[in-house]
Inverse folding.
């Protein structure tokens, strides 16, 4: 899912976070229109601040806060990352809290 990857990639880069923090961050999703008027509801995950939600509404967006099992529309992910920290190669992994599972690098 491109939108999931883009949101997680952006979280890893700006600012750089550890892998699990990137997966844990709340997400947004612009829904596919379900009516002929082209309504694009912006779904925001619980954890997005009320200020952000209200800001989206002030800009003219229709928003819906998704909680609990509704959050499944955001998908799930695992990340395995190789990077250098102070010249040392580091393997790190993270698993999405929206589902069950785990990620770990095999060395």
């Amino acid at each position: 899912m491109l939108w999931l990857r883009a949101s997680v990639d952006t979280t890893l880069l700006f600012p750089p976070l550890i892998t699990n923090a990137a997966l844990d961050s709340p997400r947004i999703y612009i829904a596919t229109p379900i009516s002929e008027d082209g309504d694009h509801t912006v779904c925001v995950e619980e954890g997005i601040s009320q200020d952000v939600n209200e800001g989206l509404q002030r800009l003219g967006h229709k928003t819906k806060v998704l909680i609990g099992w509704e959050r499944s529309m955001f998908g799930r992910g695992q990340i395995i990352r190789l990077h250098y920290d102070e010249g040392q190669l580091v393997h790190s992994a993270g698993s999405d809290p929206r589902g069950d599972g785990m990620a770990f690098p095999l060395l």
In short: The helical segments are 2-13, 19-24, 50-58. Residues 2-76 form a domain with the Glutamine Phosphoribosylpyrophosphate, subunit 1, domain 1 fold (CATH 3.60.20.40).
